[in-house]
Recover the amino acids of this structure.
């Protein structure tokens, strides 16, 4: 959800209970004020009725009938009646129905006779006025809230415009891009500080990236050269005369360690390049064709171990990825399966529309399963292993949003690696 939409949503969520509470408070206030006005009206009318009674005292058989809302009754025995307000229901001859009324009942003594005066005032008109006022206020309140929300959206959009500009430049930023990104400067202090900080951060990031890229490029050449020289010199030394079996064995072990060091160096440099996102070029790779090609290139070593390869490969699945990294991803899984498979066993390779899987027969892992894809975790019995092959597989898969899983089925002694595209 966008920041603007979230702000508007929170504003509406805050306004709703306020509006609801305001409606209840308004109705309570109007009702209370209406009662106050009716009571004042009845009290004033009571004064007038008493004055008229003083001017025209009623006789025993002649009770005044001035208005349907005024009732005067003689009270016996003599006892004072204190003024009291009552809510009740009475018949309205105009509306021809029962309506809620407010009644004031008070005692009055004149000529030695006690009378009870009952004055009534209908709520109906006041309720209609109160309802009309309430509806009008609610409509006005909703209109004001709507205008405030619209104004907030417009003002917020304008205030946050520099921030959106910064976000746009961040989306365009590439650490390996040809040009530096300059973030827009705003007159808002916070946005200005943010732009300056991002400018400095992008400059340092590009500088560090350039230094790391230069290091990996130099290391790739400078470290491989002496290793190649050592390998050649050991080959020449191995051909020298007068060497005994112990000397030849030492030379052979040294050659194996140099090969392992060279492979480790290449893997580490490749990991560094992957971490630095130096493989920007991408092609549409047909995974089925690629796996078939890699298996064909590896047939000699497979045949040397007496391993049978069963292929169930579809030619359809394709993925947009760097071709070199695709080679490394699937070749490392194939090498791992062949290297750890029992001699004379079988390997099953499957490529479907959404996944690649390879299984081989072999002993369980000599280390915890959760360490399988960590760097430098390897079977110590295999001296040529660098412990980086499966780490490369995991890095490449993560970069392209693929998921690599491993399962060992102990009942049939089979290792299963699966890559979900």
């Amino acid at each position: 959800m966008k920041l603007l939409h979230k702000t508007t949503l929170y504003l509406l969520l805050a306004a709703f209970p306020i509006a609801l509470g305001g409606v209840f408070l308004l109705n309570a206030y109007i009702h209370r004020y209406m009662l106050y006005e009716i009571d004042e009206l009845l009290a004033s009318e009571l004064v007038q009725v008493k004055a008229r009674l003083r001017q025209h005292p009623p006789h025993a058989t002649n009770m005044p009938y001035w208005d349907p809302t005024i009732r005067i009754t003689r009270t016996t025995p003599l006892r004072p009646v204190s003024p009291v307000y009552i809510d009740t229901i009475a018949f309205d001859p105009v509306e021809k129905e029962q309506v809620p009324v407010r009644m004031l009942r008070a005692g009055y003594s004149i000529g030695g006779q006690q009378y009870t005066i009952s004055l009534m005032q209908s709520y109906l008109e006041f309720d209609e006025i109160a309802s009309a006022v309430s509806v009008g206020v609610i409509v006005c309140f909703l209109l004001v809230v709507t205008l405030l929300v619209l104004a907030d959206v417009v003002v917020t959009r304008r205030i946050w415009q520099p921030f959106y500009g910064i976000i746009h430049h961040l989306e365009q930023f590439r650490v390996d891009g040809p040009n530096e990104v300059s973030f827009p400067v705003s007159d808002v202090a916070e946005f200005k500080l943010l732009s300056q900080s991002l400018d400095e951060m992008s400059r340092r990031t590009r500088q560090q990236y350039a230094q790391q890229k230069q290091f990996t490029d130099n290391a790739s050449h400078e470290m491989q050269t002496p290793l190649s020289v050592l390998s050649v010199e050991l080959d020449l030394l191995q051909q020298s005369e007068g060497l005994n079996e112990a000397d030849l064995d030492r030379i052979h072990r040294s050659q194996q360690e140099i090969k392992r060091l060279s492979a480790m160096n290449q893997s580490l440099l490749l990991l560094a390049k992957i971490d630095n996102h130096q493989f920007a070029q991408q092609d549409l790779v047909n995974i089925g064709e690629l796996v078939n090609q890699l298996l064909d290139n590896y047939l000699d070593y497979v045949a040397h171990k007496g391993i049978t390869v069963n292929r169930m490969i579809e030619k359809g699945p394709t993925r947009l990825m760097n071709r070199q990294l695709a080679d490394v991803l699937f070749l490392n899984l194939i090498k791992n399966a062949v290297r750890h498979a029992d001699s004379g066993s079988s390997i099953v390779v499957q490529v479907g529309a959404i996944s690649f899987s390879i299984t081989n027969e072999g002993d369980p892992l000599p280390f915890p399963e959760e360490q399988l894809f960590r760097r430098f975790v390897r079977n110590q019995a295999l001296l040529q292993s660098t412990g980086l092959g499966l780490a490369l597989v995991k890095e490449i898969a993560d970069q392209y949003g693929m998921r690599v899983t491993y399962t060992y089925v102990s009942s049939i002694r089979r290792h299963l690696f699966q890559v979900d595209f």
Observations:
- Residues 189-271 form a domain with the Helix Hairpins fold (CATH 1.10.287).
- Residues 238 and 252 are 8 Å apart (CA to CA).
- The chain has three domains: 3-147, 189-271, 280-420.
